[in-house]
Each structure stands twice: as C-alpha cells, then as structure tokens.
Amino acid sequence: MDTANTSRPTMAQGWNAKMGRRSTLCAFLELCLGEMEDIDAMFSDLLGEMDLLTQSLEQEAAPPAPLPNANQEVNLSIGFTDLNESLKELEDNDLDALMADLVADLNATEEKLAAEIEGLKAPSPEPPPKDLGTRPPSSISSMSSNVSTPTSSTSSPLPPPQCAKPSMEEIEAQVKADKIKMALEKLKEAKVKKLVVKVRMNDGSSKTLMVDERQSVREVLDNLFEKTHCDCNVDWSLCETNPELQLERTFEDHENLVEPLLAWTRDTENQILFQEREEKYEVFKNPQMFYLWKKDKKTIKDMKDKDKEILIKENFCGTSIIVPDLEGVLHLKEDGKKSWKQRLFQLRASGIYYVPKGKTKSSRDLVCFVQFDNINVYYGKDFRAKYKSPTDFCFVLKHPQIQKDSEYIKYMCCDDAWTMNLWVTGIRVAKYGASLYDNYKVAEKKVVMGSVWAKCSIPSSSSPSTQNTLSSQVANGHSATHQSISKDNALPVPPPPPPPPPPANLGVPCPPPPPPLLAAKKSSKRAPQQRHLPTNFPPPPPAIVNLPPPPLEDTSEAPPDFLPPPPPAPGAGQLPPPPPPIKTLPPPINTFLPPPPPPINTIPPCIKTLLPLPPPPINTLPPPSFKAMDLPPPPPDPGFLPPPPLTGGLPPPPPPPPATSANPLRVPLKPSGSLKKVPPRPPKRTTPSLHGGGGEGGGGDFMSELMLAMQKKKHP
Amino acid sequence: MAAWDLSITVEDLGDEVPPVSLSVTSDLHVGGVILKLVEKTQIQRDWSDHALWWHQKQKWLLRTSWTLDKYGIHADARLLFLPQHKPLRLGLPNGATLRLCACFSNPVFQTVMGICRLLNIRHPEELSLLRPVEEKKKKKDKGSAEEILDLTTVPLSSASRPSLYNGMPAHFMGSPEMEAIYKMLSVPQPLPAPEVITKQYRPASVVDKAHIHGRWLDSSRCLMQQGIQDNDRLWLRFKYFAFYDIEPKYDPVRLTQLYEQARWAILLEDIDCTEEEMMLFAALQYHISKVSQSEPQTTASSAAMDDLDLALQSLEVKMEGEGSSASEMLDNMSAPELSDYLKIFRPKRLTLKGYKQYWFKFQDTGISYFKSKEESFGEPIQQINLKGCEVAPEVTMAAQKFLIRLLIPAPEGMSEVYLRCENEEQYARWMAACRLASKGKSLADSSFQSEIRGIRSFLAMQNTGSGCHGNAKASDESINTQSLVSPRYHKKYKTKQLAPRILDAYQNVGQLSLVDAVARFLQIWQALPDFGHSYVVVRFKGSRKDEVLGIAPNRLIRIDLGVGDVVKTWRYNNMKQWNVNWDIKQVAIEFEGNINIAFSCVTADCKIVHEFIGGYIFMSTRGRDSSDQLNQELFHKLTGGNEAL
After folding, report:
1. What is the pLDDT at residue A409?
2. In angstroms, what is the C-alpha Rg of chain B?
3. Angstroms from A245 CA to nearest CA on chain B
4. What is the spatial distance between Cα A534 and Cα A528, in angstroms, rounded to a whole number?
5. Cross-chain Cβ contact A138/B323 below 8 Å
6. What is the rounded distance in angstroms from the CA atom of residue B384 to the CA atom of residue B387?
7. Given CB atoms, is B49 within the 8 Å cutoff of chain A?
C-alpha cells in the first residue's frame, strides 16, 4: 500500500488527460476490431463524450482518482455503454502506454505537417482526438507514414540543425520526395495488419502495445525500452511461451512479431514475456563455449578477449557463417510415440543429421533428421513430468504453426543444461545465420546509444521549439536517469522551458521506488502479482481468458501504481453491466459481473496475455484514414508513463540517488565512436552533459507542455 | 689475373651445337660474361630475357654485377644460357588447359603472381602450383587430343594490375579467340558429361587426399630448381582456403575458378557432404550452368535500379493527377488467376474414399475448392492456406502420374493433402503456385513463370532418363542429372529418381542471379565441416602409427587414420612458435600453455607443411595494414624456411 499512496498524486494529476485518452483508445480498439465503419461519425461522438467525461473528472480530480471514475460511469452510462465497457476492460497502464504512443505519433506528424507547404496549420497543443477527427483522411494517413518506423527515428538522428534554411528548390524537391514516399506508404499501409499485444514484464505487470505487421522484434524492444527505462542491455528479449506444450522461445530481433502471433489459436494461453535472457547472445559474448566446446573447461574459461574476437571473426564475418560442429548422443521422442530413444546426432549448416545404426560417421552416410526451413527451436519445460523424459533439459523442434501436441513435434532431451543450450544455440546459428550476428550488433549499439543519450538529453531541452520532438525523444530514452541527474545539478541552471508539470516528472520526486516492487522483481514473477492484484485490481477480466476479444485482456497489468483504484470492483458490482456494446464482446460482460477478484487473479495469471486479437478482424484492413492512430509508437511517452511501477521494472530504481549512480556506469560504456551517431546534439552541449541542467526532465517537458495545453483546451 | 675458359651452352642453338667457350677472368661480372657470349654467337636478337643457369648448383645467376669469383664459379661449372620465361601447360580449376609463358627463374610465389596477373585473378597468394596426378596411361590416345588454349603470345606486363576495359583486361581485347579464352576463364563451364566425371581420378581415402597435397611446389624456389621443364603440365589451384576480399565486380575469374574448384571437389568427393547437401549443390550447378549459358555478362543490378526509377517517376506523374490513382494501381496489380479441376485425397483421414474431383481455385497464398466450376462464386467447401507448408512432388512420367503432396501446418499438427493433376502442363502450374505459396508469395510474384519453367525442365529430365518421346524440348533441358552429382549417386539412384530430389532443392535457389548462385554455392561449400582441410600423413613424436594431420585455415587437426575421428585440434592463434628441423625432417610446434607437439611428415615434404602453416598465418595478417600491397617479404619470411630471403 505504500506504493499506492505515494503514487497517487501523480495519478490524480494525470487523470484528466488519461480519461481523454481513454475514450480515444476505446474507439480505436473498436476500429481495430473492424466493427465500426464510419470513423468520422464515431469520432465526433467520442469527442462529445470525452469532454463530458473529462469535465466531470476534473471536479473530482483529487485523491483516489479511480474511485470517482466509477461513480461517473454511472452518470454517463446512458448512451455511453460502449465506452464504459471498453474502459473497464482496459487498465490504466494500457491506456497510458497506448495513448502515449498515439500522442507521440501525433506530435511527429504535426511537426511534419507544419513544415510542409500544404498550409495545414496544425495546432500542436490540440487534443489528439480532435486532430484525428477534423483532419482530412489523407493527411492522417500521411502522418502514419512518418511515424511508422519508430526505430529509425531513434537510431538515425534527425536531420541536423543546419538544414534549417533549405533553398526553395530543395524544399520543393523534398516535398515531392515526401509525396512519393507517402504514396508508397499508403499503398502498403492499406494492407498492414496490426495487433494489440500484451507483453508481460518481469515483475508480473504487463504492458499493452500496438504492433503492426512490419515491425520487427527489435523495434518492439526499442519501444519497450522507452516505456520501461530499463538498462537496454543486449539480453532483453521478447519470449513466446506455450503453456500447453510447455515450451518457450526467444524471438530473434529480426523476426516480425506479428507473424508468429498469428499462428496462435483463439483460445491460446500463450504469452509474450519481456525479460533478460542471457543465452540470447551468449554465443557472441563467449563464442568459445560453442565453438571450442570440446576443449577443457579451463581453456574455455580463461579465453582472452582477443581470442574471442578472432573466433567471432572466423565464424561470423567470413563469406559463410560457420555453425558450431556439434555432435553427440541425444534422446529423441518423435512420431507421437511415448518412448525416448538415443541417437548420435550431428549439427550441420544444412540441418540436423543422425548416424544410422551400423554406419560410420562419414558425411555421406548421415541421415537427415530435420532441415531448418520450416521449423523453430524451443526450450521445453518440465518434460520429465509431462513426457517422462530422461532429464529436464529438453528442446523441441516444430513448425511454428503447430500449437498442440502432435506427432509432428520432435522432442529432444540432453544430458545437461549446457548441452541443451549448446544445441539450441547451434540450431539458431544454423537457421538464422548472419542475421543473428547483425541483430547482436544492433543490440550492442543500442546499449551504447542509450548511454550517449543519457548524456546528451539534458541539453536538448533548451533547443528551440521546432526541435522539440527530437529532444523529447532523446530524453525519453532515459528520462529516469536524466531527471535524477538534473535534480542533483538543478541549482545552477534554470531550466529554460517552464518546469514540467508534476505528472511529467514521473515518480521522481516522490519516493516511488516501492520496495515491494524491487522485491517482487527478484522473486518469481507471479508471486508479486498475486499479492497486489487481488487487493488492487478488482475485476480482472477473468473472462478474458476464454474470450477471444483481445483488447479486453489488458487487465492483467501492473497493479502497484494503481493500487488506489479499487473502482473497478465496486463499479462492477454496482453498475448494471452495460449492455454489451460491441457485438463480439458479449462474453466478457458475463465474466465481468461475477468478479470475485482474488480468486480470479490468482488463477489466471498466465492467462492475461491474450495478445493476438481474434485473427479474422485483424486481417480486415483498417480503413486507411484512421491509421494514424495505430502507428507504431515512437518514443515520447515517458512524460506520461511515469507511474512508479514502470520504473520498478528497471534495475536502477528511480529514486534520485541511485539514478545518478547509474548514470556514471553507463557513461564508460560508450565508445568514443558512438558519439557520432547523435550528430546534431554535440555542438550545443560540448560541456559535460550533467551540467546542462536542462531542468527537470528536459525530455518530459515537451510532452508535459502538450498535456497542459490539452487540458487547457478542454477546460478554458 | 689469369684468364680461364668457361664453356656455356646456349639453349636456343639446340642440343647438337657444342657449348660456346669464353675466355674469362674471375673478376669478370656476370653481365660481362653474357655480353661476351652474345657477341660470340653473332646472333642479332633480343636476349634480354635470357640468363645464366648453373646446372650443378641448380641456380640462376641473376645478379649481373656479381663476379664469377663471388658466385664461386670455376672452369668446371656447367652453365646454360636460356630464357627466364618459358611456356607451361597450365591446368585450371575448371579443367581447361592453357599454354602460357611463366617465369622459371623467380620463386614460384612470384611466378604465380605473374600468371594471376595475366589471368586477372586477384590475391594470387591464395593460389599455387602443383604437379598433376598422372593420367591413366590407357587413355593416352585421348590425352594428346586435349585442347590447349594458347596465351604464350601475351606479354607478361609488370604492372601490378592490368587495366580493364568492359571488365576485361586489355590484353584479352582484340581478337575473338582471345575474348573466347577470357570467357572461358570468367564464366562457369557447361556441365561435364557423366563419363568425364567417372573417368577422373578420385581420391578414395584420406591417405589418397594426403598424397595429392604432397604435390604442391615449393613457393620459395623457382620452377627450374624443382625440375619443371618447358611445356610441362602443372595445375593452378587455390591452395589456402582463406579467401580475402571477394568482390564480384573485380573478381569474375577468381570467383569462377573458385566455383569450379569447389564444384569438382564435390563431384570427385574430395570433400564429403551429405546427400541433402549434394542435391543442393546439384541444384545450384544446374542453375548456374543454365543462367551462365543464357545470361550475357551485363550487370543486372542497374536494370533493377532503372525499374525503380521508372516506377517512381510514373508514380509521381500519377500523384500530380487526381488522387484516385492509388486504387487504380492496386487494381492493376492483381494476380494472374489459376483455377481448374483437380483431384484431392487426404491420406490421413481413415476414409476409404479415394481421389475426389473438385473445382480448385488459387487465391493469394491458399487454395479453395468447390463442388464445381459453377458453384465457385459461393462459399468454398474448404480453404487451405499454404503458407509455411511443405510441398513435395510425386511424379511418374511413365504412368503419367502427377501428384503434389502437401504437408500443411495447423495448430494440431501437420495435415497431409494430395493433389492429383491430369497432365504435365497442369502439374507444372499448380506445383509452381504451391511452391510460391509455401514461401508466402502469391501468383503475382514475378518468379511464378520461371518456377513453372524450372519444373517443366525437371520433368523433361525424367523423360530423357526413361528414354521416351523427345518432343522438341529445348536442348538446354535435356541435361543429364548424373552430371550434377558424384559417381556414388549414379549408382545409388536412377536418373529419374534424382530429378525430383534435385528439383526439390532447386526451389530454394531457382531465383538467384548468376553471381548470387555462385556465392551461395561457395557459402555452402565453406560451411561443410571438412572445408579447407589439407591432409598430410604424419607420424607424431612418440607415436608408433601413422596419423593424419589436417591443416585448416585456423587450426591443425590430429585425425585418427583408421577411424577418421578428430583426436585433437590446435588453433594457430595459440601458437607461440614452430620450427622445422630440416635434417631429421621434423616439425616442432609450441602452443600456449606449454603444449609441444612434433611430427615427421610421411606423404609430403615437411617444407609443404611448414609452408601451409606459415601461409595461413600470413593470410590472417592481410587487411591489418590498410595498404593493398601484397607483402611478399612477410610471406617468404613465414614460409621460406631455411631458404628465406
């Protein structure tokens, strides 16, 4: 409960904005489901409703924000049922995250539009929903094109300041080029699938993201980095779990996230986890463990860095990727049989082979066991109990589409954990080849960039308004650390922009680092959740489990911040369940009603992740005009996302002192070369970053300004 | 100083002519001797390439300023006056033989550099010369008829790199014959006849392979010193399997010859691979030979760029028109249609029903089927998405059986579906569509037509195998699949059994350009576990039996001769030093951690082993200094042994 109290003020203050966002979101989700066709009409509807909602909220703004919310719902319930329904399903966290994405998109696009000669005067502070509603569809879709690649914006620096005064021709040329790009994007956009995905964090909380078909896992990870302020190290991964088969696997960074998710069944209990996985890039950190596995332990342990580099160069930088030459006896269970048999297997670039009985190990006698074109490799969990495997160190080879037990799944069992890791990694090298190393290099760069940003971000806050987006992005990367830094140094330099409103500060000022969270982090993921959830979160949509409609499932999110909001429970009890607004959603309602919170929560922890929207709706193309909303969310959410829980996920807890210490740690990491990547910044702040004193949260500033503006607009 | 008589044989005058006798003093320098000699022969010609060869000492007297005294030459010395460059018959990796002028007086390393310059092969340090395996005497009659392409008229330029015109070195310009030679060098050869493969020498064991590696010439001595005569036959081969800086734009000959060497290594089982890999190599060979025969060597990439530009331009134009253009464009991009009556069978369903006929329609990456054509506008009986499925052919030409076996993934597992086609034509189209769909491509994909063609040509292969009607198929389709695999598979499979297997592998490579296909071939070759291993039979100190030493680009491998198991490996980067005791012919190597090994060489001179080790270490130093120059001195230092410069 400590956490709950401390975080409350922030929550309350941010509430107005949040409600506004909520409505947008709901509308948006409906669209996703393809159930609303007339978007414009819907939007204007929503706008009206939203104003009402926010106004009433304002009055109550004070302490336990969530509670009032419940009351309001009563008032508004007439004609507002859809929203209520959806609101309940969505947790604040989700809303924050999604909304932040949306607002970020809008910012980016607005800026772009302003620059364009088309004469659209984009009132930047305008509340997002209005923008969407009023803009001609074409402009919206064009926005989407700008925003669609979040990673690129982070990794490639925005155009340097020099280009501020381009000649007329240049501008024209630019405009033309942009138009072409836009048109191409539009064509593509028309077919893009999007999913609302729930990702479970290490601490048991979860985040909801919008992922479109073209986004790679890398991009999604970057997105999560920004949302969670984690340390961005290369081990962070997205993993897919399949509880039914007791499998899990780490997605490779170059994979598109949507595709494997589409293979999930409607009633799936599969989840996506965001966690650090050491084995993900172990092969690049300690290549000798894979390429010299036959050598004695000591040689492997004492390997010099120089020799490691040579190994990587030999095996990954030549014309051909060399696969570790694995060979050994493994236990195999296949063809749906129950028994395990031993075979001498060999890994080659072209597949896994075995030595048939009575034959030699010569290549030409080998029998092909699998090739890698159509299969993925998964870690198996607790197979000793499930399949009576000889050991618990199992991995599985199967077609990604197979989701249930089948004779087409090959179960492999190794003598020890290390052998298993050796094989799984070897198979990944064979299957993905050069992409694996490319992924690693990108991930490494991310770490370095992260530390650079930490330095540069502060100065950025003072940059002129045109560059706001940039600075906010930069700052966002590390707003937590950076803010704490600025706090320390705050005295000397007055922050140029108006001090960010409290919400922007995220939990920094308040003692946010809820001890429970930290503890939770270390303990098993589920345990903490159970603790909090029952108390805080009333009606986790247990229904979700059964129900296909994805959006509903969001409830599972991180509870801690919200602790206060018991509303849902009461709300559910008091309110006659709003008639199921959305046709597809009926089931949720039923589940909703009987919300015995505690039991539900404990049972379904794993269930929460329901990510994939029901496939069919997704497939239907969302009308282009509305795409802007879906755009892959760029960066700047930090302002909004402050809730302590998020930070809790990070290793460096938000409290000022620790944060500062964290910063120095990062700095050394960055190689000098890395600085180049952020070209625009350096000139201004050549002086050591810290002093910039960009004021509190240089990064957050823009966003918070925007939020203020939005609020003002609504309540003049 | 006393004058004495020195007799010198002038090779150009012929064997019958007695040696020329000169009166010299010991302080006369070699240049003076040559001058006197030329005057005495009274022949007016260009003698600039000639030099003196001291027969007893087996060495050239190339330092013209050295005196006879300094060289230690006395009256009993048998000297020959002969040209330093002589013709040589050079067997190339692709099997062709060239006659060209090579330097007989410089170390072989430089001779190879000269040859590579002539042939436009970069990084000559990776190649060397070796004595060919003796041809079997019985077929002597045919050997003499061997076609030899003559390049002796081409002067060896001293420029470090020949200037290129149209990607071809200047010295190949001018005559069609010369251009044909360059084409032979830079374009993969057509597939060899199966008999040619069977006739070639194939190493049957590791020991046989080791014997081949005993034939490498010594890089630090010249050809004359190694007993090579003019017009002798030598092989030019890649020796060090560490290929540096390959760039298709500059390396057409290098890449082609590398490909040819790799291809023959696989066909002759010089390197082992699995059956699956052999089929993939076969598919790539088939594809490469097809593309290289048809595709002129122009750069395909620029065409693609042009397309893009065009597309952008037209887009721009449309943009400036009305806004509806985008949808029109989408309409225009619709896929070709494919629908027909086919028969379907599901083997796993335990029904007794056999094949049932329905109206099938291909849509996007899936098929749907209906009761009949008339009902094809309603709801299909079933829709099957083929993305990610496995497609296998089952074709018997003789029985006119054309089956497409689909293994379709579903959450519950894979389900099997057979589609039966009526005839070749129908089969080719549906098979191509299924293959594309399994890779997530629709019929709109540009590769659809070429996929169909590929399937047809493989069907034709099965035809030729069974010797049935040869109805005017294009000649390039009558390829014998036995030209693509090693003789082992000639015995194991019939031609028509091979075709579907190769076709199966072909579906993954059929779209590659020539350069990409060659690159892929080389990649797969390099990924083979035994790639780059040169073998020598050795005896380790303290061991009583012969063992095999495998020399790889990054390590030494001790291999059990009997079983073939790897006993131990040592990496070069852990090596502290190595020494050769030339007297007892023993190589001793010290590795970090106080590991010492020593062995004597059985199938090769220890100089060869020494040179391999030093050579690989040299290869790994390339690229460290930015200069592009070949550091000959370092190479000789690392490989020269007691003859180091």
Report:
1. 93
2. 32
3. 11
4. 11
5. yes
6. 9
7. no
Q: What is the gyration radius of the CA atoms in chain A, in angstroms?
A: 26
Largest separation between any pair of C-alpha atoms in chain B = 116
Tell me if B388 and A186 make a contact (CB, 8 A cut-off): no
pLDDT number for residue A364: 85
Does A348 sit within 8 Å of B529, measured CB to CB? yes
Instruction: Assess contact for B37 and B30: CB atoms under 8 A.
Output: no
**Share above pLDDT 90 across residues of chain B, in percent, rounded to a whole number:** 37
Most A CBs within 10 Å: which of B274, B332, B620, as the mutation test of the A interface? B274
CA distance B312 to chain A (A): 7
How does residue A230 score in pLDDT terms, banded at 50, 70 and 90?
confident
Whether B277 and chain A come into contact, CB under 8 Å, resolves to yes
* Those residues with Cβ within 8 angstroms of residue B43's Cβ, 6 or more apart along the chain or in another chain: none
Question: How does the average pLDDT of chain B come out, rounded?
Answer: 83
B527 neighbourhood in chain A, CB within 8 Å? 320-323, 348-350
Nearest CB to A314 within list B269, B412, B554:
B554
What is the CB-side half-sphere exposure of residue B529 using CA atoms within 13 A?
Answer: 22
* Structure-model confidence comparison of residues A392 and A516, the more confident one: A392
- Please name the residues in contact with A247: beta carbons below 8 A apart, sequence gap of 6 or more: A241, A378, A379, A380, A381, A396
- Residue A703's φ and ψ, nearest 5 degrees, are -65, -40
Nearest to A692 by CA among A458, A456, A488, A453: A458
Strands (E) located in B230-325: 233-238
Both tokens of residue A342? Answer: 């031993």
Q: What's the sign of the alpha-carbon dihedral A92, A98, A99, A100?
A: positive
> Is B153 exposed, middle or buried (CB count within 10 Å of its CB: 0-12, 13-18, 19+)?
exposed
pLDDT at position A341: 94
Mean pLDDT of B492-513: 83
Question: Could you tell me how far CA B285 lies from the centroid of its own chain?
Answer: 11
Residue B220 CB-half CA count within 13 A = 21
**Among the listed residues B191, B189, B197, the one whose alpha carbon sits nearest the alpha carbon of residue B476:** B191
What confidence tens digit (pLDDT) does each residue in B393-432 have? 888 877 888 889 888 888 888 888 888 998 888 898 898 8
* Strand positions, DSSP E, A99-193: none
| DSSP conformation class of B127 | E
Strand duo B3-10 + B79-83: pairing: parallel
* B321 close to B346: Cβ distance less than 8 angstroms: no
User: Collapsing DSSP states into helix, strand and coil, what is residue B498?
Assistant: helix
Q: Shortest CB distance from A366 goes to which of B274, B508, B530?
A: B274
Nearest to B411 among A294, A310, A403 (CB): A403
Sequence-separated (6 or more) residues with CB below 8 Å from residue A264? A270, A403, A611, A612
The pLDDT, as a whole number, for residue A521 is: 41
Of A183, A263, A320, the CB nearest to B326: A183
The beta-carbon contacts of A498-501 under 8 Å, at least 24 apart in sequence, are: A498/A701, A498/A705, A499/A695, A499/A696, A500/A639, A500/A695, A500/A696, A500/A697, A500/A700, A500/A701, A500/A704, A500/A705, A501/A13, A501/A704, A501/A707, A501/A708
What is this model's ipTM?
A: 0.85
Global pTM? 0.68
Residue A540 has pLDDT above 70, yes or no: no
Residue predicted with more confidence, A316 or A72: A316
- Contact state of A368 with B388 under an 8 Å Cβ cutoff: no
Query: Which residues have C-beta within 8 Å of that of residue B305, sequence separation ≥ 6?
Result: none
Model pLDDT for residues A592-644, shown as the tens digit of each residue: 433 343 333 333 333 333 333 443 433 333 443 433 344 444 444 444 433 44
Both tokens of residue A505?
């500060």
pLDDT of residue A675: 34
Give the position of tokens 């100083």: B1
